[in-house]
Amino acid sequence: MPTKPSEKILITVAPTGAETTKADCPQLPTTLEELVATAQECESAGAAMIHVHIRDAEHRPTLDQTRLRDTVQALHEGTGLVVQLSTGGSVHDPLEDRLKVLDAKPDSCSLTMGTTNFGDDVFSNPWPFVCELYQLSQERQVVPEFELFDLGQVHAMRRLIDTYGLPYGGKVHCDFVMGVPGGMPGTAAALVAGVGMLPEEVTSWSATGIGRTTLPVALAALSMGAHLRVGMEDTLTLARGVPVERNSQLVERAVSLAALAQRTPMTPSDARVLLGL
Ligand code: KMH
Ligand code: ZN
């Protein structure tokens, strides 16, 4: 696990998500053109991986196969970023559509380790689905990022690896998603508890805090030598009353915070080595 301050930092940008509407946040990248332009800006600012949710022509979340394939292709052509497709989608997406995300041949996919209350909704990840998606990622040679919304999910990751072995590529990278109403809180104490439970197979981990937990989680993760995920999927304000205008602002802020910890951003090639791609 990365603990030395001198080590490079993986910055993942999650620019869109599935929850915020374009009407509420016109600066959210929802078209393919906006997404590619955002990805390019964020790569220049220091991101090495992109966690992608896509939208349809009306800016609504979709898992449309053609759009997913076109998105992966456009991001590979337009950037060097590691392309991670969300298999979480939106809380309304059927499980079978979420499995089909891997047909679009991303480098990486998110893989959430259990069901979580998600505000007033339920983000459904029944165990048989988790196992099927994991085995599919191994078969399709897609590197999973284990998403941990709660401490029980850390233990579920251990159970998954014990049962089915290591991910494709042999590395184990996970991401603490903290501060979701219904999941673990976005606090240093929760992060320390989660890290203490990580299986020994874990080779790297990042963290992200939703909303007002963004900065506390980022600072706690940095103090532990970890990697960061940032972006408008998780954070819409830079400070109270100051909206994020571009995802690259959040990447730039992460780079500045990392610099204080004497760490420089990984390039996409560094990230590929870290993730076993
Ligand atoms: N949109 C959330 C319901 C993921 O991308 O894998 C799920 C989510 C996790 O964002
Ligand atoms: Zn996501």
The CATH superfamily label reads: Aldolase class I
What is the CATH architecture descriptor? Alpha-Beta Barrel
Output the helix-strand order: EHEEEHEHEEEHEHEHEHEEEHH
Bound molecules: (5S)-5-amino-3-OXO-hexanoic acid, zinc ion
Average predicted confidence as pLDDT: 97
Strand order of the largest sheet: 1-2-5-6-9-10-11-12
Pfam family, one: BKACE
Keywords: Metal-binding, Transferase, Zinc
Protein name: 3-keto-5-aminohexanoate cleavage protein
Cofactor: Zn(2+)
Provide a short characterization of the protein structure.
This is 3-keto-5-aminohexanoate cleavage protein. InterPro entries: Aldolase_TIM, BKACE. It is built from nine helices and 14 strands.
Explain how this protein is built.
The model has no long low-confidence stretch (mean pLDDT 97). The protein has an eight-stranded parallel β-barrel with strand order 1-2-5-6-9-10-11-12, surrounded by seven helices. It has a two-stranded antiparallel ribbon with strand order 3-4. It is globular and about 45 Å long. The protein has a single domain, classed as Aldolase class I (TIM Barrel), CATH 3.20.20. It is α/β, with parallel strands linked by helices. The chain is built from nine helices and 14 strands. The protein binds (5S)-5-amino-3-OXO-hexanoic acid and zinc ion (ZN). (5S)-5-amino-3-OXO-hexanoic acid (KMH) binds at residues 17-18, 86-88, 90-91, 110, 112, 118, 123, 147.
